[in-house]
Write a structure and sequence with these properties.
Length: about 150
């Protein structure tokens, strides 16, 4: 299993958890972003900078990932594409996207986008908290144990 990180919007605290897990387990991690992303020195961690543009990083992740890989993203359409390719998808709050829940997530995302486009203030997600970080770390560890 390789880990692909949608790095433009991934919180730094989540990246740090991923870096520690990669070094601890010997799992290769690639961060993909349309800006420079600093990574710690490690043979397991690298970053790819893609051109600016809508979904360019997402498209690169989908192009490079293989069945059984893990994508870390809060982007629901990217998660859906990863699942379609046979990969796993985990959001930074520790919620695993699955074939069972992705369709409902896409529908809710589209509904909220429709509300926002019609002028309704929907607000954003709550700030990432300690419980979210812990849930992410635990889920990541479990995935790495069962899929390595």
């Amino acid at each position: 299993m390789k880990i692909w990180v949608d790095a433009d919007a991934c919180p730094n605290v989540i990246k740090e958890i991923i870096f520690r897990a990669a070094n601890r387990t010997g799992t290769f991690v690639t961060l993909v972003a349309n800006q420079y992303i600093a990574t710690p020195p490690s043979k397991y961690i690298k970053a790819i900078q893609v051109h600016q543009g809508f979904d360019v990083a997402d498209d690169e992740i989908v192009r490079l990932l293989n069945q059984g890989d893990l994508v870390v993203t809060a982007d629901i359409p990217l998660a859906s594409e990863a699942i379609t390719k046979g990969a796993l998808a985990l959001n930074p709050r520790g919620e695993l996207y699955t074939t069972e829940n992705i369709k409902a997530r896409l529908q809710m995302r589209d509904f909220m986008e429709t509300l926002r486009n019609s002028g309704v203030e929907t607000g954003g997600p709550a700030a990432l908290n300690h419980k979210n970080r812990e849930k992410f770390a635990n889920c990541l560890d479990k995935l790495l144990l069962t899929h390595s």
